[in-house]
Amino acid sequence: MAEIRNPNQGGGGDSNKPLLYMMLAMIVAFTVFQMWRGTKTQPLQKPTATNSATAPNAAGKSPVPTGSTQAFNQQAAGTAGAGNAAGAAAAVPAVVGTAEQTTVVENQLYRIAFSSRGGEVRSWVLKGQKDRYGAPLDLVHGAAAKQFGYPMSIYTYDQGQNANLKQALFVPSATGNLLAPQTLTFHYAQGGYDITKTFRFDETYVVHAEAEVKQNGVPVRALLAWPGGFGDQEQAQDYNSATVETMRGGKEEHLAFKKVVGGDTLNAPVDFAGVADQYFAAVMLPENIDNATAVTLSNKIDVQKLARDGKATGKSVDVPLLGVAVGATDGPAKLRVFAGPKSVPVLKSVTVSGRSGESLAPIMDFGFFGPIAKGLFWALYWTHEHLASNWGWAIVVLTVLINAVLIPLRVQTMKSALKMQRIQPQMDAIKAKYAKYKVTDPKKAEMNAEIMDLQKKEGVNMLGGCIPTLIQLPLLFAMLSTIPKVFELRGAHWFWLHDLTAADPWHVLPITLVISQFLVSFYMPSPGVDPAQQRMMAFMMPAFSLFITWNYASGLGIYWVVGNILMVITQLVMNQTALGKEMRALAAKRARKKANAPQGAKVIQGRR
């Protein structure tokens, strides 16, 4: 067996324990984050009465069964006064469809299929977007919509009424396939009810929607709803990552499912309200924010638990299902509906009514390291636009730029390490003087005071060698939370990788990261670190890096591997400078001295 020595390793002591504690804290933080992300299942709130399809209506009566249009007509006639109902029926000619019909509207971005039953959306396919199986992505969650309602359904505070409105056969202004720009209207009138839905389509992701409901000529407070779920939600973590996105008075809020109360009303001003998952959002923007109202919807749905390869495990789990309904406090509901990708440029193009400069961009939630993560995202986006047309190469280029900026700090780290090596013999002498005392002995405090006085006298800053690490850790955490959320990286290719938000299928990056992490630990200067601590960090950090990236977004692996390789190359170059040569000479001298000691030197062992 031959000894493998770190050329920059000085020797014993525990003066660098703060660095060890910081690295251990990072490991704990990474572990907690990974466990929270992959296995967290929170208890669900029970749906309130306003969310149950079988809840009593406003009058305290059970709703009429929702199986037919006739049932809806019977309930409408029963809830209206006899005289008023007769007068309304005479004043408004009946407008009722004879059979369910389908109308499809499409532009270059989407293909939306409406049903005349309820005047609702049955599918909302985004062109150019694929689900995890390669099929066209439908934003409508089929199972959830069938159970809780389809997009653009009418929501009132009478759930029995809501259920029956979904069964009403509207008369569409057109059927078949239509191309945007287009206007589509659905009309229903019978039993005292007069309901009109109007949708206007252009070449963007935004659809203009209006809904007006009258009962016996009196306006009914009715909202348009996206009851919950997206077509790309399959695994439990997809549902758990969903949020309700709101902005009121210019202040945005991201509500996780634990904080969403089903049936909770948000009063004016409501700038926008919607639901979002990791990559897509359905957001409603009222035309008059000062006369707008919104209702948050929370249900639960039983889904099949999937393995990481997408195959069913045979187990099921209850997961949260979030939705919203938006309209006006009085009068018809007039709003714009955005249903599309959470691409920041796209979100910035959708402005908020009555709010100069405000857009949907705030629904991008970058987490605790938001400001840093947002800066990294825009730097990555700029790099992709101007320096690299491929997102994988954009990550590589951005990593190179970040490391170039950190070079002066690494030079400063080497200078600090050199000063530490120069005074290491004096520090060892002080420690030897107090070696006979126990750790809990007050004399140890005197030892630490002497060491600190020596460092102060020689101009040694204990934190000087930690500055690059202190900068890189927030960047790593920010990248950790950013890359899986960036829509542009979804489906982005780079060599063998076909989706930079998915794990490396061949695990090439995690394995390479382990090797590069070991080289970083081996070549980076660590004067004053105890050999036992050095060995622990040399093997613990690569193992933990492997744990983090094995099933994480491959874009993070690119950033981490390239950063480590650049750190090693930079250190090798710096080792050839006068500063580096002096450090290695001091390290070699110290190693020879410890090798001649009776107890021997503790070193990292490896094969020749």
TrEMBL record:
Entry keyword Chloroplast: no
Function: Required for the insertion and/or proper folding and/or complex formation of integral membrane proteins into the membrane. Involved in integration of membrane proteins that insert both dependently and independently of the Sec translocase complex, as well as at least some lipoproteins. Aids folding of multispanning membrane proteins.
Summary of subunit composition and partner proteins: Interacts with the Sec translocase complex via SecD. Specifically interacts with transmembrane segments of nascent integral membrane proteins during membrane integration.
High-level lineage: Bacteria, Pseudomonadati, Acidobacteriota, Terriglobia, Terriglobales
Membrane-spanning ranges: 19-36, 363-384, 390-411, 462-487
Stretches for region Disordered: 43-70
Family statement: Belongs to the OXA1/ALB3/YidC family. Type 1 subfamily.
Segments of skewed composition (Low complexity): 47-59
InterPro entries named among the record's database cross-references: Membr_insert_YidC, Membr_insert_YidC_N, YidC/ALB3/OXA1/COX18, YidC/Oxa/ALB_C, YidC_ALB_C, YidC_periplasmic_sf
Domain Membrane insertase YidC N-terminal span(s) in chain numbering: 104-378
Cellular location(s): Cell inner membrane; Cell membrane
Domain Membrane insertase YidC/Oxa/ALB C-terminal as annotated: residue spans: 391-575
The entry's keywords: Cell membrane, Chaperone, Membrane, Protein transport, Transmembrane, Transmembrane helix, Transport
Protein name per UniProt: Membrane protein insertase YidC
Name of one Pfam family that matches: 60KD_IMP
Predominant localisation class: membrane
Membrane topology, from the record: Multi-pass membrane protein
